[in-house]
Every structure is written in structure tokens, then in C-alpha cells.
Amino acid sequence: MRLSKAWLIARRDFKIFGQQKNIWYSIFIFPxxxxxxxxxxxxxxxxxxxxxxxxxxxxxxxxxxSFFIVIGAAFIPLGIASYSIVGEKIEKSLEPLLATPLxxxxxxxxxxxxxxxxxLVVMYAGASVFMVGVDAVTSGKLGYNYFPNLTFAxxxxxxxxxxxxxxxLYSVIVSSRANDVRSANSYSILIFLPLMAIYFASExxxxxxxxxxxxxxxGILSAFDVALFFIGTxxxxxxxxxxxxx
Amino acid sequence: xIETDNLTxxxxxxxxxxxxxxxxxxxxxxxxxxxxxxxxxxxxxxxxCLISKTSGNARIGGYEIGDKKDSxxxxxxxxxxxxxxxxxxxxxxxxxxxFYGKIFDCTESQRKENxxxxxxxxxxxxxxxxxxxxxxxxxxxxxxxxxxxxHEPQILFMxxxxxxxxxxxxxxxxxxxxxxxxxxxxxxxxxxxxxxxxRICDKIGIINTKLHAIGTPKDLEQKVRGKKTVVSLEHVNNxxxxxxxxxxxxxxxxAGNKVIFDVVDPDKENWAAVESIxxxxxxxxxxxxxxxxxxxxxLKLVRESE
Lengths: 246, 306
Description:
The structure holds two protein chains of two kinds.
Chain A: H1 3-17, H2 21-48, H3 58-91, H4 94-98, H5 104-142, H6 150-177, H7 181-188, H8 192-203, H9 211-235, H10 238-243
Helix pairs in contact in A: 1-5, 2-3, 2-5, 3-5, 3-6, 3-7, 3-8, 5-6, 6-7, 6-9
Chain B: E1 2-11, E2 14-24, E3 29-33, H1 40-47, E4 55-60, E5 63-64, H2 68-77, E6 78-81, H3 93-103, H4 108-121, H5 137-149, E7 155-159, H6 167-182, E8 186-191, H7 194-200, E9 203-208, E10 210-215, H8 217-225, E11 227-233, H9 238-245, E12 250-255, E13 258-263, H10 266-279, E14 284-291, H11 294-305
Parallel strand pairs in B: 3-8, 3-9, 6-7, 7-8
Antiparallel strand pairs in B: 1-2, 1-4, 4-5, 9-10, 11-13, 11-14, 12-13
């Protein structure tokens, strides 16, 4: 596996994305919502209902909020990966690429990097704004800056990459069966189900969104990633692509 | 350069290519002629190591298809023009070629030189900064040919490169193939255009799942179906007809004042026929021996195989 070759594919995809406004919307919409809207909601809720945001329940609320960063991180690569693979399918540009000395793994890795990197960069940028915004709104009440902390660092450095990888691999599988970007995106939305299930499980106290809970979630996401990796690499093989991809 | 030995591909119960054995020598243009669904694209895909073979063997430049390490070496030495051009439509013509040059490890100066040279020859240099998606069909096809040549491959596989092109664009692509032939590139050309195959190819294989015939266009015309004699007379009457029917002539037909029959040995058979006509009081204006056309051969073989 030559990383330089995978990087070539990723760079070409970045160049293509540069001309696709739809992709930019899908990349930026979630980080903007999380980084701007959540601190604004806290500010608004704090002004309207002073009993809601107490020193006791604020940390739990902030941890719950921060889990949306994981959900957002899973959202961003969907549009990119779907476009990157279904787009090639529509343009029928995979066959000449497959006829080069690149390995299936290098092509898949290139596609994965192209979807993964923007998602991580944008989500980390959004998370930074989120931290500053939330601290600005809550530090007065708490008497300290809640972010950054160890739990949030774990979320950013472990859960977010795991969620992004899961999303990318899932998109590869969906894209291998879809004929257009829209249908690929509609199927891709299903990836939110396990993440939303985790969130609702935390709401009904089956799981807690603290460092222990995050460790369990990391385990679950890792298992998903491994399973999706095997299915994804099986779907992304020369013969499979040329003879079975519809 | 390209050798196959009983090469076979099955998709479940469907046999797409069956026991194809052929040889294409260095610098030769080989035309794979067959109807749609005859297994031409499947054959090219196997030879380009894009899909696996079911049985048999094939070697490209001495490397074995199906062997993982050899497959990479084969893909390095070949260029492919697929049946769908498969360009990256959101990149410019230049960027499309530059990307492939990088994949094939061409240096920056090689890439610059090759892109300029090839686009110039194909008349696309002025359009190098235009998005490939904005190109006409013919221009896209030419760009796909350019992409396949960017790393100066020894062997070029072309899957119906002139299909769906207007006559002018098809002519440009054909002329370019002829130029490549002069450069001694080995070209494997899939086509269902008989005229194209006849004009460009040194050797032709007629395929319809199985390889039904292989040889030079002239060989095929002569060997597969033989020749016809056309005798033009002043007039044809019953006496002449009876005289001809008494001879062992095959497929004797009359068309106006012309008598046509199949011949294997024209010198011997024509003499006997002309003698009979003259003895029956006929007046011979012209005796002409014509070979079967490649189209006759192709249609006969394809119909027989169906």
C-alpha cells in the first residue's frame, strides 16, 4: 500500500469538490449548527429559565450537547463519500483508474482520505468554536471554563475519528449499490440510527455520556468500523466494481 | 506481446468468452471483431487484469494475467481506452492527463512534454484548460485516447474507440490509430465496424463468445469462404444454362446477363465453364474473379455461431 498514491486520489477529489457547491454545504452545515446554535440555545435558555441551567445539571447537559459533535462528524463524510464514489460511477471514470497500477486498497484509501480529512478538519474547527462559545455562556454560572476537559478530548480524539471512519466505510458500501448521489445519501442517513440510539439511551439513563460511557461507545463504534471495513473492502474490488456495481 | 491460450470467462452459468487462443505480435494492430455481447469487452478486461479469468492462460509482454504481482506490471505497460470514455468531467483536459501521468510515476517534465505532444497531435492543446465535461463526444474520445498514452505504454487496448462518434470525429481517431501503428505500438482494438477493422488492422479475430476465425483481412476473405467467378455474357439462354448445370459448379446463380458461381481453383474451373458456354453458343464479354468481402465472412461466421 503506497500512501503517496492514495494521496494523489484524495488530492484529485479535493480539486473536484472545490467545484461542487452542494458538497461544501454538506461539509459546513453541521459544524456551523453545533458551534453557533448550541451556545446560542444555552444563552437563550439561561435567560428564559434560570432554574433549568443550574450548576448541578449543566455539566450533564454540556456532555449531552457535545455528543452531537460525534453525530455531526458522522454526517459530514456522507455527502463527500457518496459523491466521490457515485460521481465516479456516473462518469464511469473508475474503469480507467482501475486499469492503472494502483491497488484496490490505494484507491479505497484515497477515497476514504478525501472524505475523512475535510470532516475532521471542519469538525475540529467547529468544536473549537463550540468550546469557546459554550465557555463564554457558562463560565459565569459555573465559575470556571468547562471546556476543554478530558472527556471532551476523548470525544474529539477517539469518538469523532471512529464515527467518521464508520460513516466513510458505510458510504462506500451504500455507494456500491446506489446509482445516484441522492439515493446514496438517503440510504446513508441510516448511519445515524446507532448514534441516535446511543444518544437516546443516554437520555433514559441506560448509558451515561461521561468518560466511562464514551469508552463503551468507542468499543461499539470500533466494532462497527471493523465490520464495515470487511464489508467495504469486499464491495470495493475491481471485479465487483466492473461487473456487479449497477 | 499478447498471447492467450484457451482463455475463458464465465459469469455464473453464462459463458462470456470461451477458449480464446490468439497471438498478437509486437507492433501489430489486432482487431477483435464481433457483435454486441460477443465477449470483446470481457476479453479486454481480462487482458488488462481488471477481471479474473475462469480458465486458460494469457500473457502480456511475458507477464501472466491472474498473477497478482504480474498484474501490476501488466497494468504499468498498458494503456486502456474503455468503451465509456470515463473522464473526470470536473477536471480540465490538462488536469485529467496530469493526474494519470502522476499515477504512472511520470516525472513533471515528462508529463508536461507528453501532455503537450499528445494534445497537440489530437488538436486539443488549445482546449487544455477547458473542463472535460464541456467537451463534445469526439473531443472526449480523443482525450480518453490521450489519457491512455500519457505514460507511453507499449501496448494499447481500445474498446470500440469510434463507436457513437460522428464520421469526422471517428476519422480523426482512426487516423491517430494509424499514426500509432507507424510508431510500432501494439494495439488491441475491439470493434464491430468491419470497414474500420479492414483498414487499420494487420490481423483480425472474429469472436462471438468463441473465436471463430483469425488471420489477416486478406486471409480471412480467401480462406474462410473462397472466391466467386462472375462471367458476363451477351445473353443467357437455356442451352447455356443446361451446359453449366452439367458442370460441378457450386452455388450457380444467374443475375441478368451474369453467371456467378463459387470457385476454389479459378484457373481450372473457369476454363471449363467458359468452354461450356462457348460450345453452347454463348458470347463471353468478361470473366472476373472476386473474393468474398470481410463483411461476408463476418456475417457468415456470426450467423453460424448464433
